[in-house]
Amino acid sequence: MHKLMLSALVSVTLGLGTGFAGSAKAATQDEINATLGADQSIWSGLFTLAVADQIRTHCDSIEARTFTATRFVYGLYSQAREYGYSRDEIRAFQRADSTEARLRAEVGAYFAQNGVREGAPETYCALGQSEIAAGSAAGELLRAR
Questions:
Q1: Could you give the CA distance from residue 84 to residue 56 in angstroms, rounded to a whole number?
Q2: pTM score
Q3: Residue 80: closest CA among 116, 117, 32
Q4: Region of poorest pLDDT, from 8-17, 56-65, 115-124
Q5: In Å, what is the CA distance from 31 to each residue of 71, 83, 92, 101?
């Protein structure tokens, strides 16, 4: 599976942010990962980014709405910063094997429920068109070429 748009956008976005030098409270990275992973708003945002990324990666007739997606990522980053975590701690959560595995599993299940098949770009395009038409969160991050 391709790297998630989330990785690229978060890396770029976090590199531009100013942020604080350290976290507000001492916590292990596992505790940070558990906290951020349990935040429904943050997790659903990551899921949305992953769905949109996979659609635009596998469907040549759909592209990312880059400005909208960047704003979306900044919003997620701000939510994570409200916990007092540093850029590095948030980035470590985003890059954690457990985060990637959970996203892959949940996005894979969503795609399976919606008829998307690996190696069949037309199925990604059909879902993408449906997401765009419905005005879903993922659809808002995409546009037809």
A1: 33
A2: 0.82
A3: 32
A4: 8-17
A5: 27, 12, 12, 17
Residue type at 60 in one-letter notation: D
Phi, psi of 143, rounded to the nearest 5 degrees? -150, 150
Q: pLDDT band for position 129 (50/70/90)?
A: very high
Q: What does the pLDDT read at residue 52?
A: 98
Q: Which residue has tokens 């005005």? A: 135
142 forms beta bridges with 64
Amino acid at 94: Q
Residue type, position 63, single letter: E
C-alpha 83/C-alpha 88 separation (Å) is 13
